[in-house]
Amino acid sequence: MTMLVALPILLPLLAAGLSLVLGRFATLQRLLGVVVFTANAVLAVVLLAEADKSGPVVLQLGGWDAPVGITLVADRLSALLMLISMVVMLAVLVYSIGQRITDYGRSTSSTAFHPMYLVLGAGVSMAYLTGDLFNLFVAFEIMLGASYVLITRRTTATRVRAGMTYTIVSLTSSLLFITMIALVYAATGTVNLADLSGKVEALPVGVQSAMALMMIVVFGIKSAMVPLHFWLPDSYPTAPAPVTAVFAGLLTKVGVYALIRTQTLVFDHGESWTLLLWFSVITMIIGALGAIAQNDLNRLLSFLLVSHIGYMLFGLALYDVTGLAGAILYVVHHITVQATLFLVSGLLTRHTGTVALRGMGGLAKLYPAIALLFAIPALNLAGIPPFSGFVAKLALLEAGAEVGTTMAYVATGAAVLTSFLTLYAMAKVWVFAFWGKSKPPHPDPDPTDELIIGTGSTSRTMVSATSALVVFGVLIAVFAGPLSEISTRAATDLLDGGPYRTAVLGEEAE
Amino acid sequence: MLLLVTAHLVLAALLPTVSRWLGRWAFAVGAILPAVSLGWALTSLTEVLAGGTVDESVAWAPVLGLTFTLRLDILSLLMIFLVSGVGVLILCYCVYYFKPDAQSNSRTSALLVAFAGAMLGLVLADDLFTLYIFWELTTVCSFLLVGQDGNTKQQRRSSIQALLVTVLGGLSMLLGFVLLGEQAGTYRISEIVASPPAAGALTSTALVLILLGAFTKSAQVPFHTWLPGAMVAPTPVSAYLHAASMVKAGVYLVARLSPAFSDHTPWWPLIATLGIWTMLIGGYRALFERDLKTLLAYGTVSQLGFLMVLMGAGSHTVAMAGATMLIAHGLFKSTLFLVVGIIDHQAGTRNIDELSGIRRRFPVLTVIGAIGALSMAGIPPLFGFLGKEAAFEGFLESGTTGDLVVLVGLVLGSALTAAYSFRFLWGAFGTKPGVEDSSAPKPSLGLMVPAAVPAALTLLLGVVASLFNALATTYAEPYPAGDHPYYLALWHGFSLPLLLSAVVVASGVGLHLARDRVVRLGGWLPDFLQAQPGYERTVAGLDTVSYAVTGRFQAGSLPTYLAIILLTFVLVPGSAVLTGGSMPEELRLWDSAVQVPVAILVLTAAIAVTMAKRRMTAVILTGVVGYGIGAFFVLDGGPDLALAQFLVETLTLVAFVFVLRRLPSRFTQVESTRSPRWPKVAVSVAAGALVAVSALVFSGARQAPPEASEGFVEAAPEGAHANNVVNAILVDFRAFDTVGEISVLAVAATGVASLILATRRARRPSAAEETEGPRKSREVRK
Amino acid sequence: MSEGPPRSQPSGEKKRRTSLWEEWDTPQEHWLLVGSHRDGRERSLLLEVAARIIFPTVLVLSLYLLFAGHNRSGGGFSGGLVAGQAFVVRYLAGGPMEVRAAVGLRPPVIIGAGLSLAVLTGLAPIFWGEAPLTSAYVSMTLPVLGDVHVVSSLFLDMGVYLLIVGVVCDLLRTLGAGIEEQSPRPRRRPSG
Coiled-coil intervals in this record (chain B) (predicted)? Predict the structure, then answer.
């Protein structure tokens, strides 16, 4: 059973290597990708069941005990987030395959896409499963490296510049991350997360808070917390739809996960954290305001992504069981919904040939199926019941009211206001794109460009992949009961690091 | 009960398919479930009148307090009469109202049935969140029904306005619910009402937030302007949503919570003030309208104010009046809307100025319309009169000044109501000089019957006053009754309420006859106080703020972004390091003297990089920095590290040179366009200095020797079978990291290939190419 | 670099100072000229002969580094990088066709093979019931070579070696040859 923990990482890496070797055989590459991600999703389910039943599943790699070797840990939080991520990656992969077959025919292979996608999947799994800070850095490197390639692939000269913005900002964040690791190691002599939690307590308070704040900044860049978010709206919209869907759904949430994991396991803040609450408030509001100001559909969705990261930070900052459980629920909900919205946006822009909202119109009558596929996740994101957005948002509001400090109430109010602003932004999209007179589609401006594709054709594969994700999102709402219970259990575990530490370090850990 | 609600939603999902076969009869199919609900409600009538309730509970996410709890009591029952009863009528009416082959029929029927289900769930909800869920569902249905296809600007604007205003209220209501539940310790409405939480700042805030939701939904001033705007929807939709059911949701909520909270500080003053004001404004505006539907819309606004006051008052007689007016309003408003729909359908216009002679052409219709309008005006022996009498009696009872002020407001409002009722009658059925008499075709029976049924009920319930008495009394039970509880009757003797009613009718007639003078007086309210421009300015302001904030911050410049990131890094953790950290006690400047020249070399090269004018120089200097670091490794005793560092540095130099061959030799930024460098220098120096200081502080803070390093040295020879500890770490202890990092290398190579070999990529067979073949050659060069 | 002959020294005092500041890093001679390809352009005899001698030697050195890494300085990274440098020298001497001739497989295939080998080495211990990436130690006596000790992490190192060789060859293929093919070749007169 413990062996299974390494598989979600090693299998995609192996498949990536094989995919590179099989660069000329498109069908084999596609098959490999689909099989591996399905296997990963199944593994995640198994790990989640096991972790929920008997506590964290721990694997010491190489047979070395912590802190000499690297530890992989699958607890409730990791397994749950990995499950959602793998499902989303699978759906986006199918969408992407469908898009490529539609555009270029069945036999065209791509040397870059499938290996990079698999490496990205390996990186995401590694980030969720690792129990070691340096390994987390390596996971980020893997994810980011693959994302650099995916975002600059098949792009135009003007848009590669935005890809470079993303690359350079991410490289800076990696630089700060490794600096931070070096400082942590200098102060404590270990990079194992469970071990750190014991050793950090012995440090002077100033050093502890400096360390915690450094982690906030580093992971804040990755999770697009304001004021570290500027790179996201400039770069995400420039990638093709499936790539943006995966980035938006997964990469930022890995940053949020890293924040949650480090701030709960390594540090113990005691009560709600005012500084982080402030950050969450400005993230929520500025992101939502940014979305309202946009005419580009993908930029609008990117700003909403930034805004809703604020919700998760809000849950974390409350630092109690209900708050953390709400944050976890929100992560689960948001991964799915944001990826779905970007996929739908991809479907739309294929028909309209433009991403400008004012260039679209009347799509509800022309493509009612896509309109429905948009409406459900849009309402979901805006927190309209009975979808998962409402459930997660409610959990956060209840947590905020429970904590009861003035700052918590301010943040709760900001959360409600952001919900309203999100609805306004979604309503704008609906009114401009789906209502009104239909505008003639813009012709395919550049046949080599992967972002604006005005060919007017969407294959059944693409639509089914998107619909499957929409249904998955609805299922999250239907199973809100079990999900909220698992989240609460996960949150309790997080705040009380005992089970994790004992599982990793053995019984002598206190 | 939950089954019934769900069945509505399932049927709604199926209706589009059904309507493809049955056409407009899909509406009739849709009417089945509301009819079933109505029947079920009627069968439960006796039980509820005896004081019993029907409860049901289904857990969804109990950890979060999300449980579907439904409960049938007298208030729900009354509302079901409106929701399902009127629903059946409306759906049958739709069969004949809409064009048989209209494309929108499938959508309209589905949305109407979904809406009926959502309203049913709303009025049955016994849990705060259940109520909220159905509340927002009705908002969504309303948005889609008002907007239809969104073809006209008016449709889009009105639907957005309705959406924004009601959602704003809905969200504040949700927050209020959360706070209230937190205070009360439970989310079940019946339990909260039975033992309400103590008065306090939090409870009052919660109540104000909840009232905000109620006010937006029920179109109270200043949120009322969405209702007249929503009249762009087809008439049956307006009749159902915006007259009979959805707008009553706010009133319903107030009625639901009043038994517990009517004596809390913010409750009654807020409701009374806004309610009376709404009644007056709505009535006043209705006097100017030329479109019959908008006239009725303002009338609805006014009546909703009236209902708010009645439901929120918290006394026995007034509660009875509230129950009566609730049903009465539902009945006469649906009648009137349906009549207007018939007129519009047959004559093609709703404008007062264009209608004439309807009275002679459609006598039956006139009678129906007259019953409705007179009930609205409060003329005996119609049902509306009973309610009004009860209302006046209720506020006369206590004799307090507050109540008397309210009474004056009600009387004024009722006078306006009477006036616009007469205006309606005159406008719809009167004979206008100079206008041609209508020659519209006769309306079908299918249209007339649904309009006639509520009218008949209005007459019946008015004449046989005691029919409704039991219901009203049961509803008013939570309030203390006093010795002589009120009962509904047409004749109570020569009492003050009767006098007031007479005054009301007389003033109404007077106002209507003097209509020309009144019309001229209108429109004097200064612009900034008017609600509709207020809404528009708020929305425009929101857009402006968004543009301003985003434009200011999202600069699009990479150096700015990096500067902000580094600045945050310096300020946030930096302040913690500087305030909380302390330097280590033993600080050596260097370990061996050779380190000094190497350090000077590295620093000089680093500074020189920023001053380099040619790309090649910058690359070489960066290489010098790298080799210098390698030299440090050698001096510190890490030959493997130094070896790897030198090799990698050489390789990257080679890679750079390959690329630099093709670029201009100098950095190409023109001096004049470059922003001043000193901020960038300052930020980077600050960041670098912070890292250096942190390195000192953190290494000085170490408490114990590094466990991991010792473990490596210890385990390498026997465990990893290696004498080279570094290699053992790389391929054994931390082999996982190595596997990860080589993947990154593979990724890097692939990425470079993908960027550079881009022009050889495949092209989509887009339609444009067939006509523009020669463009290909130009594309390749990119 | 396509720039003209070096600038002559300016005459006046003031001109020299500004020129020094502007040109302090201008090289005084040309180096690494592009355009000296095998296909009809300049060839450097010295470079080609030297490359022929150096190439196999450097490769042997890289293999030594690979095998010796576990107990002395070296390892997969260093070995792979040194092998890569050998290919760089060959490319400098002979151009893109040289690289293609030296390595028969497409570089992505080599990269993929290296990565797969490394990961398979990591996965293999599972079949023996151990945690992934556990190293095994095999000690045997071979007829000619005598006592041979093999640690399974050597295979991981070999995967790393292969991958780095593949990466360097890929960089040569793209950065080196790809950029050249893409841009229009400058018509240069042979430099004297």
Answer: none
